[in-house]
Amino acid sequence: MKPPNATWLVTGAAGMLGQDLLVRLRTEPGAQVVALGSTALDITDPEAVATAVAEHQPVLVVNCAAWTGVDDAETREAQAARINGDGPRHLAEACAKSGAKLIHVSTDYVFAGDADRPYAEDAATGPRGAYGRTKLAGERAVLDTLPEDGYVVRTAWLYGAARGNFVRTMIRLEGVKDTLDVVDDQRGQPTWTVDLADHLVRLGAAALAGDAPAGVYHGTSSGETTWFGFTREIFRLLGADPERVHPTTSAAFARPAPRPAYSVLGHERWRSAGIEPIRDWKSALAEAFPALVAAERG
């Protein structure tokens, strides 16, 4: 049974996902929340991490802190590794000492992106860029340090109202561009941060109740699309003509870091914790859309 008034410590609490996670935790019975943004807790500092965990005595830590600059990581891999690799290790070591459980948010970039069917939670990893390598290091640190109490939740294509993201950018561009060329050779699962936050809380509650096996879970929406298909759906929800969105290839938008051509993740592990996977991406986007438009145009 989950103890009453259990403390959940959230790192990276000021980010897009962190903010929605805090909103969701307000509705979780018995959850007392300690929210620490990067200015309040530098997860690359092992002493600071140990002190924070010892002081607040959480039963569960959710790590939303991350270096998310995929392209910048190509030239600054050491700095990215401190946050994405060393940071989770420091948190895991502090949790091991205190007895807390840890949920660590990771990414689809740990895979090569060359599959033709959804990646299972136990599929072989093979990151093609620096960002993916640093995130995989963080995953391994959590799972190796906390084999019974460590949880890794991989996500991808996140959007939300709290910060700038692909959806908000497309909403803005629809108002200023006659047509848009959007990549149609990368497949993935657009995922609303509100949905992911809900699943992180559900997983945490199940873990504390002893109902969720430790290990890897995939926190992405069901279904799949391309950035092109995603943008056409955004235009449709805006009441704009989707034909204004034209398909193109990744080669037209050369970037320093390679992008996975196929980022579709499987979701079977959720059922082992008694939790249904996240809903279809289109239904989530439709519900999220009014807040996204208000955030971008307000």
Automatic annotation (TrEMBL):
GO terms for molecular function: dTDP-4-dehydrorhamnose reductase activity. Coiled coil: none annotated. One of its GO terms (biological process) is dTDP-rhamnose biosynthetic process. Pfam families: RmlD_sub_bind. It is an enzyme of class 1 (oxidoreductase). The keyword Oxidoreductase applies. It comes from the Bacteria. The keyword Transferase does not apply. Pathway: Carbohydrate biosynthesis; dTDP-L-rhamnose biosynthesis. GO terms for cellular component: cytosol. Belongs to the dTDP-4-dehydrorhamnose reductase family. This is dTDP-4-dehydrorhamnose reductase. It comes from Actinacidiphila reveromycinica. The lineage of its organism: Bacteria, Bacillati, Actinomycetota, Actinomycetes, Kitasatosporales.
